[in-house]
Hints:
mainly beta, AttH-like fold, 10-stranded antiparallel sheet, 5% helix, Iron ABC transporter permease, AttH-like_dom_sf, AttH_dom, signal
Amino acid sequence: MNARAYLLLLVLSVVVAVPASPQAQGFAGLGTQAEGFAVPERGVPLAFPRDHGAHPDYRIEWWYLTANLKSADGRSFGLQWTLFRSALEPGGKDASQIWMGHAAATSAERHLVAERLARGGTGQAGVTLAPFSAWIDEWKMETRVGEEALAAGADPLSKLVLGASGTDFRYSMELEAKGPLVPQGDRGYSVKSAEGQASYYYSQPFYTISGTLVLPEGEVEVTGEAWLDREWSSQPLSAGQTGWDWFSLHLESGEKLMAFRLRGDAQGYMSGTWISADGRPTPLGPSDLVVTPLDTARVAGHVLPVRWRVEVPGHGVDVTTEALNDDAWMAVSFPYWEGPIRFSGSHEGQGYLEMTGYK
């Protein structure tokens, strides 16, 4: 058995740790029971820079960055850089952690994907705080804030370098935050179901990004805006929730919108955050949001809604999203759709859409 297959079996063991049908565990096992692991508690404040690092007492965690990019000649692109951590058992030991990386580069014609897997305790993957660095193999997300600025209290995530590669693409980027970190939900406590499942969740949605993207057709210099999500939990879904639709939207007015719809149980569950141009968050509940699938496409054998209407009546938002590339399928260990979108209507802008759990 090769190393990649062995690691994949370890990752899958997280999903089958509880003897239940896949439908009763949620997408990728995220609805399995959290016995023995730490669970999020309402009212616990986020603390930085501590919470930029790993939380090994929780079962699952991710560092998730997406970016909307343009070349000098006006072509649109997207990129994704994600590091997942999953614990095989409670206790927080390094050797019990499985790390998984996903990277993608998207154009109107192509969607290129790569995946990496690593076992904890080997140095192959991990996250450090001093200085901040998240990596798996040669893929990296690292601070480029100087030591003096860090000592004076600068956020390590305020300036980053980012890099990843696959067999047919690579990218090297620099990012700089132009606004504050944003707690999602109730000051970072993000409820995911009527039963009370929750995660700790915050974002940095104010990055400018620039760098070099290398595709099969050649090298291109790009600039744009990026969004980083940080989230950790031990049972972020209820057992009946089988997937989600997640939006991160950059409005041309400078405001931001995060919205998600969790599917599978009778009512589903919706939540989001309206973020002012200066970074002030306003939580949005199920009555504040309407997301409606419009047109579908068959992608990798799945019927997926690739065009959506998103409404936030309290903020005058009524927009229709369009995918840059309908075929933005992430053909990885737990497949899903993730790609750049544009939107128009009451507001103009761009962002990212993630969809999981579609058959």
